[in-house]
Amino acid sequence: MPTSEYLSIEHASSEHPFSEHTPVEQQSSKFPTQTPTADIGVFGGSGFYSLLDNVRELAIDTPYGAPSDSIFLAELDGRNVAFLPRHGRHHTIPPHSINYRANVWAMKHLGVRYLLSPCAAGSLQNHIAPEDFVVCDQYVDRTRNRKDTFYDGPEVYHVSSADPYCPHLRQLAIDVIREHGITVHERGTVVVVQGPRFSTKAESKWFTQAGWEAISMTQYPEAYLALEQNIAVVNISLITDYDSGLVADGEVAPVSQQEVFAVFLKNSERIKRVILDMIRRIPLDMDSPCHHALDHAKVGV
């Protein structure tokens, strides 16, 4: 498991998150309010929006408690975008303590229909190298005790997660990443572990032998909860290093924390450009299978 999982791509930057070019206006919103709105959401913080002008900070209450932080609203080429740092703006919330329901509900509350969810990850296969990006099409849940549904009754929904990520957003991500000259793996399974501990060598070898590609700590239940809100979601896993099982078997050489951090910073800079280009190019009238996840999911009257 990468040491950089605790380093957040959300705010990785050598600059202060706000500058004279990114004034932040503060507002608050109780959950009955439906304005302002956003078309696109990004689980990422100042590392993404520090390049944009006229950023507004919006504090939102939700029926599930407080999100990880305020929502930061900005406009890019006529698109309203909501940014939310999943670990908090100062990275004070570990993966197992994130209020995923509040985060996703806040995005839905603002009208978000397309959600971009990048994350730092480790590689489970030696052909997926540090600095590569993986556009995952599947996840495996190895977490426990996380609040992972909006439907605790009396209404009962059984939502299919057979294909948890939006195929259209995935293809757009692949195209944009490739245009930026980054090595991209067009599909992959990310194993989501509970954290905060990393995997043992035995666990890591097990994941590798199963054929899975990446390992991280945040995609579940985040991606599934987006489905429960009919939000199209895409994950880009940013590979920082090889997981412990590959290193233990001698398939790859061990690296230092300094080397991992250097890759992490490089990935953070590149994903900013990818995400901003994706925001510009998402067709806002695009219909996704994710938008229909609830169509036949309700049980009973």
Write structural notes for this entry:
With 301 residues, the protein is α/β, with parallel strands linked by helices. The chain is 25% helix and 23% strand. Mean pLDDT is 88; it is low at 1-8 and 11-24. It contains seven helices and 14 strands. Helix 2 runs parallel beside helix 5 and helix 3 (167-179) packs across helix 7. Strands 1, 2, 3, 4, 5, 6, 7, 8, 10, 11, 12 and 13 form a twelve-stranded mixed beta sheet that branches. The radius of gyration is 18 Å and the shape is globular. It has a single domain, classed as Rossmann fold (3-Layer(aba) Sandwich).
Summarize this, please?
The chain is of the alpha/beta class and 301 residues long. It has helices spanning 46-49, 100-109, 167-179, 201-209, 219-228, 244-248, 257-281; strands spanning 24-29, 40-42, 55-60, 71-76, 79-83, 114-123, 133-135, 138-142, 156-157, 184-185, 189-193, 214-216, 232-242, 298-299. The longest helix is centred in the C-terminal third of the chain and has 25 residues, at 257-281.
Write down the oligomeric state.
Answer: single chain
The percentage helix is 25-40%
Number of strands: 14
CATH superfamily: Nucleoside phosphorylase domain
CATH architecture: 3-Layer(aba) Sandwich
Number of DSSP helices? Answer: 7
Q: How many domains make up the coordinates?
A: 1
Q: In the CATH hierarchy, what is the class?
A: Alpha Beta
The fraction of residues in strands falls at: 15-25%
End-to-end distance, in Å? 45 Å
Shape: globular
Largest sheet: 12 strands, mixed
Contiguous runs where pLDDT drops below 50 for at least 5 residues: 1-8, 11-24
Give Rg in angstroms.
Answer: 18 Å
